[in-house]
Structures are given as C-alpha cells and as structure tokens.
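Amino Acid Chain and Its Fold in Token Form
===========================================
Scope: a single protein chain, as residues and as a discrete description of its fold.
Amino acid sequence: labelled as such and written in the usual single-letter residue code.
Position: the record begins directly beneath this header, with no further notes in between.
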Amino acid sequence: MYAIKYFKSMQFLTDTFQFEADASVVDSSEDDDGSYVVTDHTIYYPGGGGQEPDKGSIIDENGKEYTILDAFFDTNSFKHYIAEELPLGEKIKIRIDQDYRVQNAQLHTAGHLLAAVVYEKLKWPLKPIKGFHYQQGAYIEFDLEDEMFTPSDANKLVRAVEEDISKNLPLTADMSSFEKTDVRKILESDSFFPEHKHTKRTVAIQGYKAVPCGGTHLESTGAIEHFTIKQLLYKKGKIRINYSAGKESQSPQID
C-alpha cells in the first residue's frame, strides 16, 4: 500500500473523476522495462489490488501524444513507461480514458459492496478472501464453510445489493494509521493482519466497515448503476461469485 508522503502526489487516490492534469517531468530515463518519465504528480492508476490499470497518455509541450504502456510505483518514484524519454522540466499533460476509468471504478465499488452485503448485511457464512475487479471477468471469492449457495440465494443477493445501490450510499477514503486503537479494532479480522507501524488507505461504504484499498472508487453506490451475478463457481470449499456492474451489466440474473 502507498506511503502517506506520496498520497497527495497520486491524485487518483483522492479524485476518481479527474481525467486530465498538467504536470512536470522530474526524471526521465530507461531501465530493463523501457523508457519512462517521472512527474511531480499523477492521475494515472497503475493497477493493483485486484484492479487493472488505467488507459492513458502523456502529451508533451509540442502536442505529441505518447501512450502510457505501463506504470509502476516503488519507494522512490512513480514511473510512467512511454516510447521515449522526455526532457527534465518539460510541462506535460496526463490524460486518461474516462469511460475505462469509470467502468473500473464501478466494478471495484460493486465488488466491495458485494462482499459487504454477503458478510455484514446478510450475515451468510461466507468470508470474502479475494477480489478481482477486471473488466474481462470480475469476481469475489469466499470461503464456503460447507454451505451450498443456490441460484435462489444469488437472486436474493442481487436484490440486497440493488437495495443498497438505490440508497445511493456515500463512499469515503482515508489514510489511517494502524497504530490507532480504534482503527485497528475496525480493520482487523481473522484473515487480515496489518503492519501496525504503517499507514494505509482505507475505503468505506456508509454503514459498512472500512477496508484497506488503493483503488479508484465511485462517490456513492448509486453510480454503480446496474449489478448482475453472472456465474457461480465452486472449488475446494470456496465459491467464486462472478459479477458485472455499470452500463454493461444488463444480462439476465441466474435462474
């Protein structure tokens, strides 16, 4: 998870809906992965935590556009990989694909809501253990605990999620220290053991517990628009609930 000193420079953490930003090149070089530029701040989400990276580009002072091929964050810098290096101090624009970003945020927020509804609202004996929010096949995986999950349960779950979508519950994101007793009490669970000396970003849907997350999210559950369970997969004491969300989530419910 991201160290707090980089929080303000990575604006995707505070504003999902900023799709273009001016920035300056503070470093530009080449490594084993190719040519890259480091900027004084960025809106480009590099991927991670079960969410795929943005699609985007960097535009130089002459209007030349470079596709961002990849991006990595390490302890020293945030590298945007493009086709060639750029001069230090160059004023550039970072532009990301708006529709792609919003769809990813819809899927990620819907995944958090799905897990919360199952575990906290319906209180089913299913513990969320993994989230994958990619457009080609989003899912939440749960420990099944020897309980069968039926199509009837799936439809009940969809109705419960849709209820929270209709309530338009707000989401909040925060940087919190696990050294605080109240934060540890909220976040710690049987399957999550944080490093207490580190600061983490948490995301919370109103009425549900905050969870550690570095992804992009919607401002409220109503922006999920549509939610559908597409498939149920069982394997070795686990169930994977495949879902879709957003404008593309128009397929029939499970019968």
In short: Residues 98-121 form the longest helix (24 residues).
